[in-house]
Specification:
Layout: E1 23-27, E2 40-44, H1 51-58, H2 60-65, H3 69-82, H4 93-103, H5 108-119, H6 123-135, E3 137-138, E4 143-148, H7 150-153, H8 162-169, E5 176-182, E6 188-194, H9 200-205, E7 209-210, E8 214-219, H10 222-235
Parallel strand pairs: 1-2, 4-5
Antiparallel strand pairs: 3-4, 5-6, 6-8, 7-8
Helix pairs in contact: 1-3, 3-4, 3-5, 6-8
Amino acid sequence: MLDTANLDRIDGDYEGLHEMHKLFKIDHHPVKHGYNLDYCNVFIETNASSTSEMIARMFDDVVKESEDRELLALLYAGIAGDTGRFMYDNTTNITFDTVGRLLGRFSSGSRHYVNMKLGSINEYQANLMGYAYDRRYYLNDNVVSLVVPYSQIRGGHEADAYVTIGALQRLEKPEIAVVAVENEDGSYRIHLRSKFKPINELAAKYNGGGHPLAAGAKAKDRDEVAKLFHELAEEW
């Protein structure tokens, strides 16, 4: 099990995990609940930039000898993606050391392709970013918010809505950005980003979790979204 903070965030039905003889979890997210199983071997490093960085270091001997260019490129992409292409505060000297080992194993052309893919957006994502800047709402001087209705993302890929939180995160003044993306059933996925103050404890109160400055949560309806927004405005 990789890069999954708690059982509720696993895709699909996770009840089958209880039937497994052994379960290994490798993650850089702090564990708040779940995985309290006798047969679960947990490897957690909250100071690691990414789970990809952890894997690259844990299996360093394999990586050094690997001729699988796709594997090496995917590990690099995982690290580059989670660090915002090495701009986020979770980037450390260990991150650069790990990346240096990977870069020595695959071509500059592959690296260029990964960087281009991470930095590019399609037309649908561009429209969503425009929507975010046009419809953003300040809960107070420190918190900027956005609600993305399902009608706005219908016809595209729901996962593409992540670009909206990235757009608001780039604004200079607010310290915290929050985006609520409506699902087809009327529930919401919440994306939270902070420049300084931890927000993962708040996310945990709303069936979520994550890192201190980057977390996710869930809301069953618009009323619960409003409750979370109000709590953010009051606390920050």
